[in-house]
Amino acid sequence: MTDAPLRLLFVAPELVPLIKTGGLGDVCGALPPTLQQLGADVRVVLPAYRPVLAALSGASRVVPNLRLPGFPACALLESKLANGIDVLAIDCPELYNRDGGPYQDAGGNDWPDNPQRFGLLARVAALLGGAQSPLDWRPDVIHCNDWQSALAPLYLRFAEGARAASVLTVHNLAFQGVFPLATAARLGLPPQSLGVDGVEYHGQMSFLKAGLVYADRITTVSPTYAAEIQHERLGFGMQGLLVARSSVLTGILNGIDAGEWDPAHDPALAARYGAAELERKADNKLALQRSLGLAPEPRIPLLGLVSRFTHQKGIDLLLAIADELIGAPAQLALLGRGDPALEQGVAALAVRHPRRVGFGRRVDEALAHLIEAGADMFLMPSRFEPCGLNQMYSQRYGTPPVVHATGGLADTVVDCSAATLAAGAATGFTFTEESAGALLQAVRRAIAAYHDPPTWRALQKNGMAKDFSWARSAGEYLAVYREAVNGKS
Ligand code: ADP
Ligand code: GLC
Description:
- The protein is of the alpha/beta class.
- It folds into 2 domains: 7-255 and 470-487, Rossmann fold, CATH 3.40.50; 275-464, Rossmann fold (3-Layer(aba) Sandwich).
- Helix content is 38%, strand content 18%.
- The protein is globular, with a radius of gyration of 23 Å.
């Protein structure tokens, strides 16, 4: 390759600030601009969901009529985001212009036409990466994210003529895009790709498997998760394939958007602060207690959590020990939506202890920021966590996290011990056994440290001094892109 800037097409199932369901949206929003700052020439392609259409109302229709076999006609809209990133939105009203979320309707049911919706995303991405692209701009690499875009490496591999290299990032192996095998023919997949060494997965087809088989390089979002998914416990059936492809698999830790998540400049806080003004966290604690109706106790530790409510996140483990925690004493500030049984469990807890437990049963960006700043410590009892962003936010906000040592949580939180404190490395509390008892023990250790101000200050300051910015990780992605271009098969 010459020194010409690397041209990258980034395929985004969701994208902050336009649409987000979780950390994937944060990553797709923050990584491309960082890559651009490092000299890459980046465009992002995504479906023109209804909120995306509304946000890009001034976009130009650069490809007015695109007809791909097996899919409804669509168009490509081009627009520049405020951060300078060029966005290509696939305008296909029949598939994307509707109320509800990107993957599910308002009632939480998966859209039945998801294979077409995300088949089209991948098909368009592959078109733009191949010789038949309707655009003059040709990428060197297409970077796909999760199952929603994972068919693109397959389409590209079987396309005629010169093609871009492909990279697939796995943000969460638990989501695999599995559909009846008959779907494959409707998506125009070539017959040679339908066998067990292609998309076939236990008599069905898997979008994610297509990417794992055909991508030139695979990454996942932390080094520990890259190792964990090669074993049965967290391999979700793909461990054999991942072991077979381990020579092209890399774990690259996510970064955080250090502008968006900065306690010194965060407009959602009652008081802004840096590491030298940690006493101002007290104002945020009071504001958080007020906003959730908690008793305005300055000295009882306040434990925060912001999460999708799913089995993955271990909310049930927290529920199992909540009464004991409250008696410790402690207060809880919880924000999240998801599994109705978990929502009901937390809601009932808040009804039983209205002055000790506050529950925001909603998606609320501002409250998420206030919890990071106003809580004394932050809980992430996830059963597995490919990377996790909140534990990095909380360290930046001087709010030590208590986490299960798995995936990115193990890679980003240093457990508090005499040795790690002496080394200036301790930033939080970790537990290794996946159980409510182990969580309780870790929180008890955290509460004991909270009542020892010098230790607590050290933990807060160590966490705030850590560099979780995207620049480091983006450099690692550039290296993977170069390998993908050079090692294209
Ligand atoms: P995941 O992607 O598995 O949900 P991450 O930790 O990577 O986990 O990212 C979750 C992101 O979603 C974080 O930015 C977090 O603050 C945000 N989030 C989750 N639930 C809510 C909510 N109810 N309100 C606001 N933000 C939320
Ligand atoms: C997934 C994972 C989460 C990760 C995020 C962004 O949603 O569950 O751990 O931080 O993707 O990569």
